[in-house]
Amino acid sequence: MPNPKIIVTGGAGFIGSHTVVSLVENGYEPIVVDDFSNSKRSVLDGLSAICGRKIPCFELDCADRAGLDRVFRETGPVAGVIHFAASKAVNESLQKPLLYYRNNLGGLLSVLEVMLAHGTRDLVFSSSCTVYGQPEKLPVTESTPIAAASSVYGATKQICEKIVEDTVASGAPLRATLLRYFNPIGAHPSARIGELPLGDPQNLAPVILQSAAGLRGPVQIYGDDWSTPDGTCIRDYIHVLDLAAAHVRSLDFMARRPEAPMVEILNVGTGRGTSVREALDAFERATGQKVASLVGPRRAGDIEQIYACVDKSAKVLGWRATRTIDDAMRDAWRWQQTLRA
Ligand code: WQD
Prior knowledge:
Layout: E1 5-9, H1 14-25, E2 29-34, H2 42-51, E3 57-59, H3 65-75, E4 80-83, H4 90-95, H5 97-118, E5 122-128, H6 152-169, E6 175-181, E7 183-185, H7 204-212, E8 219-222, E9 234-235, E10 237-239, H8 240-256, E11 262-268, E12 274-275, H9 276-287, E13 293-296, H10 311-317, H11 325-340
The structure holds UDP-4-deoxy-4-formamido-beta-L-arabinopyranose.
């Protein structure tokens, strides 16, 4: 039997590229669809080096329905889609709401319509823990109530979840797994692929890496007066390869399930909360590099703490994160050094 073909929209991005590697390692045949609006073509060279073969790629905005339809026709039977492609900068989403609604909703609508037209049943969709806002009880389970979205980006993820759920509820022949990511960090240990933040990064890990590399000043800790043990905010940082593996397990799981329609919502984190100070310590411990930090004011819109309950993903997918934050920091640092060279 030929390997099942999987369309990976946004497959040149940070999580997408690591998932492509994981798909190849697990007997799938990934086909990347990416418009390179927030990624570089050189990612494809990194993927070829790791996978030992060229990964097919179509340069296309997946919201271009006619174009996506052509990709499906040229590819032949497509077993499933992993839909990563989306705009993801929280601040930018507040300044350019229409762009975010158009890209994120338009991309998903086009993917679903083309899937249904071609009889492709299995979808893995990138959602986010941002849908929970600041939960009252920790860790968050998948039945923790959804909070009012605090950004347009967050709103698009909530609406996209609903679009998939409504499509499944209509009886359309679709099996979907909605993965709510916590905070992905790290890189492939080969240092051939990793995160490529365009412009000035806002996320903690790239800020730490760039600061340690001397590309920016000290890391500014956004407040140390939160109600947490060391006063800094808590998140659930997951190695991008563990996150990638969850996508492959989701496809395996759906292929085993004969029934369609179905939809499963799953948290993808480690189940462990780490404070900003602990993340800085992990970086120094794992890499032997010092990183300067200073305490600044709180960042507007930040939530105090969130981490996942991962019991459901363990039960449904037989999956758990296996890598530590130290592993992630070490791998990310190796990757960062290739960027400096
Ligand atoms: C992590 C922690 C900051 C930078 C974002 C998105 C969210 C979701 C996950 C995708 C926080 C602190 C950060 C810095 C700092 N993404 N920090 N100094 O806040 O969890 O959210 O990623 O769906 O939608 O908003 O991630 O990496 O920005 O911050 O002290 O220079 O690091 O306050 O506690 P966050 P982050």
